[in-house]
Known about the structure:
It is globular and about 60 Å long. With about 210 residues, the chain is an alpha+beta fold. The chain has helices at about 1-15, 175-180, 185-190, 195-205, and strands spanning about 65-70, 85-90, 95-100, 110-115, 115-120, 130-135, 140, 145-150, 155-165, 170. The chain has a 5-stranded antiparallel sheet, with no helix packed on it. Strands 6-5-8-3-10 form a 5-stranded antiparallel sheet.
Amino acid sequence: MLLHTFFLLSILLSTSHASVQDFCVGDLKGAEGPAGFPCKTPATVTSDDFVFAGLSEAGNITNIINAAVTPAFVSQFPALNGLGLSAARLDLGPGGVIPLHTHPGANELLLVSKGHITAGFISSSNNVYIKVLKKGELMVFPQGLLHFQIAAGKRNAIAHAIFSSANPGLQILDFALFASNFPTPLVSKTTFLDPVIVKKLKAVLGGSG
């Protein structure tokens, strides 16, 4: 029994002094790899590295979608490097819309903090799940699925999103089709839209081809 206790004590003492890397504040000057950015030297890390104030200000919604997304991804908040989470702020004017889009690298949890937001996603089996969210309500959007948010009613709305990755990625369907150089004949062929409509949408969103 004494030998067993001594053995356990020796293990605890040997592991209690092991080096543990509590965090890895990203050095954005380095190249980003699959595991994120290289770490800043611990001696250069301060308390300010762990605070991000970028979501305290409303985004500029004077644009075609009457909405703005302010990200707090690893590129804006390097302390998220390697932690597997990030955030964003959504500002929507009356009728404002975050068009159909996906986050290929993360699940999303959306919390409404002001107004009402109609939100939904489309499953891989083409089932559609839509809900009008009120202040304080949450909705989850599974990774990689097309989803959207629209301000409901005639008031501004604000929501905050939390992602399960420091870099969730973003692809907006409308912009991929109509703000790119995706040739009009191919867009028409793959979406069944009339080429005239495709060209009109490209003119609005700045696409070519």
